[in-house]
Write a structure and sequence with these properties.
Layout: E1 4-5, E2 26-31, H1 46-55, E3 60-62, E4 68-70, E5 73-78, E6 84-89, H2 103-115, E7 128-135, E8 138-143, H3 150-153, H4 164-170, E9 184-190, E10 194-199, E11 213-218, H5 222-231, E12 236-237, H6 245-250, E13 254-260, E14 264-269, H7 280-283, H8 285-293, H9 297-305, E15 310-311, H10 334-343, E16 350-357, H11 360-374, E17 378-385, H12 387-396, E18 401-406, H13 413-420, H14 434-445, H15 449-466, E19 469-474, E20 476-482, E21 485-486, E22 502-503
Parallel strand pairs: 1-13, 2-11, 2-12, 16-17, 16-18
Antiparallel strand pairs: 3-4, 5-6, 6-8, 7-8, 9-10, 10-11, 12-20, 13-20, 14-18, 14-19, 15-19, 21-22
Helix pairs in contact: 8-10, 13-14, 14-15
């Protein structure tokens, strides 16, 4: 029987090879992009996080209700002043190279995240002053100030622990063959073709791992990705298209899993990043507001996504408890957009280098935005690039606007701080405002929900009118798999977890 499984419900995908008892099982997963480097300190892509879910366990994870739960950790305790976090670790855990996952390894990994050149975890852990080894299975994080999002931060790459021996031996090439303490160990990677991992026999929770091998296959064209699933060449695909929902539901051999994402889809605008930060869009908040008002988010949802997604205008969705109700999703207002452009003293058309990843769904979104914006006086010149190339171009400031997704984090800090804070590692637009910085810092150190939300309100008042991200919509994360599988647990972060996968 067909099943549609909503957010928070259970589901899993796996594929078993027919044959004699004991035959190897291989799960073949179709990814929407090829991940960037497989180093937890340096990685920044959503698909990379999917691969890391099999390779690198974290100190903590989340459950279906976004509660923080132990993974490599067993327990934690925060001091009364909020400036010390003590973590007790699991006993007997080993890395894929056989070395122990102990307190020294945790200290090494956290210090590596905080200090490694190019680390994207540095900002996430900037509040950590030092890490002490208390005993072989206990570490203590000493903080510069209380930091409300810390546990949630440690449920992602900042909480991934790598083998010190392997990291030291590999140096800056560690991401070519990562060694962690996850359920699967790295086998090989062929860029743009496949990433292969195999079951780690000494995994601490090995009794719950029933798949022998996983092949991750990057297939950017979602139509091709679905065709491979339908033909049996893939067993699971992430991010099926909303327009594919009817075909998936009509296929008795397929199952559809739907979960609302924690992140957002939007346009990052270059306001101060090198050569791309020229022209009215970069120079005038009024022009940025005009572009925002030129877009009909509900129409975009209906045209591109058959109404299956969720219009939005903030770093979290309207149903999220952190949503700022004083800034509702704006209705399209072309006349007001034109008036703002006139007020800014700018002539039209306003030419914008509009960079987008090479993805058919994103291209359609961009074309709709292009048509809508044109009515207000914008010439959005679409430039299609490969995803990794787009990130490089964004870092270098070679863009005017960039369609960029963010998969989201359980705590709202993970959706805004690195993007809006001065010098933030994901602040590709180079936006900088001391009042926004102060508000975001206050949201990190406040100890109550009410105080944190009030701090985010202060940030929103400026960021949502002058900032460098235009939020557009929130996806329903669509994962499809064959019905020959059991035990897949889909959590709200949209990641594909493999522990618990079994054949039916």
């Amino acid at each position: 029987m067909k099943r549609m499984i909503l957010a928070g419900a259970l589901a899993v995908a796996t594929f078993g090879l027919a044959g004699a008892a004991g035959a190897q099982t291989t799960l073949r997963i179709g990814l929407a992009e090829d991940p960037d480097v497989l180093d937890p300190s340096l990685g920044r892509t959503y698909v990379g996080r999917i691969v890391f879910a099999s390779l690198c366990d974290k100190l903590f994870d989340i459950d279906a209700d976004l509660n923080v739960v132990p993974q490599l950790a067993l327990s934690h305790e925060t001091s009364e002043d909020g400036r010390t976090l003590t973590i007790r670790l699991r006993e007997g855990v080993t890395f894929h190279d056989g070395t122990p996952m102990d307190a020294q390894a945790v200290k090494y990994s956290l210090d590596r995240h905080r200090s490694m050149e190019g680390s994207f975890r540095r900002g996430e852990l900037s509040v950590v002053e030092s890490v002490d080894v208390v005993d072989p299975l206990t570490v203590q994080l000493n903080l510069k100030s209380p930091f409300a999002p810390l546990l949630a931060t440690l449920t992602d790459r900042s909480g991934m622990i790598v083998s010190p021996a392997a990291a030291e031996a590999a140096g800056d090439r560690f991401g070519n063959a990562p060694v962690c303490a996850g359920p699967f160990s790295f086998v090989e990677r062929v860029q743009q073709d496949r990433i292969v991992v195999e079951k780690f026999a000494d995994y601490w929770n090995a009794d719950e791992v029933f798949i022998d091998r996983i092949e991750y296959r990057p297939i950017p064209d979602s139509t091709v990705r679905l065709a491979n699933l339908q033909s049996g060449d893939l067993d699971l695909i992430e991010r099926a298209l909303a327009t594919d929902i009817p075909a998936i539901r009509a296929d008795d051999a397929l199952e559809l899993v739907i979960v609302g994402e924690l992140g957002y889809q939007g346009m990052t605008l270059n306001v101060a990043n090198d050569e791309g930060a020229t022209g009215p869009l970069a120079e005038s908040p009024l022009v940025r507001q005009a572009l925002n008002l030129a877009i009909d988010r509900e129409a975009l949802n209906q045209v591109v996504f058959n109404g299956e997604f969720f219009p939005g205008n903030q770093w979290i969705g309207p149903e999220n408890q952190w949503y700022q109700e004083s800034h509702p999703v704006p209705a399209r207002d072309v006349e007001k957009a034109k008036a703002l452009i006139a007020e800014a003293g700018v002539s039209t058309p306003i030419v914008v280098d509009f960079m987008i990843p090479n993805n058919p769904e994103v291209r359609q979104v961009a074309e709709v935005i292009q048509a809508m914006a044109a009515e207000a006086g914008f010439d959005m010149q679409i430039r299609v690039v490969e995803f990794a190339t787009g990130l490089q171009e964004a870092e270098a400031g070679r863009f005017g606007a960039f369609m960029l997704a963010w998969s989201g984090r359980p705590d709202p800090d993970g959706n805004i701080y690195s993007f809006a804070y001065t010098g933030g590692p994901l602040n590709y637009g180079k936006f900088s405002n001391p009042e926004v910085d102060a508000a975001l810092d206050a949201a990190r150190t406040a100890t109550t929900f009410e105080d944190r939300k009030a701090a985010y309100a202060d940030a929103a008042d400026i960021w949502l009118t002058e900032g460098s991200v235009l939020y557009l919509y929130h996806r329903a994360m669509l994962i499809a798999h064959t019905d020959a599988v059991d035990g897949y647990v889909q959590l709200p972060d949209g990641l594909v977890r493999v522990v618990g996968v079994s054949m039916n």
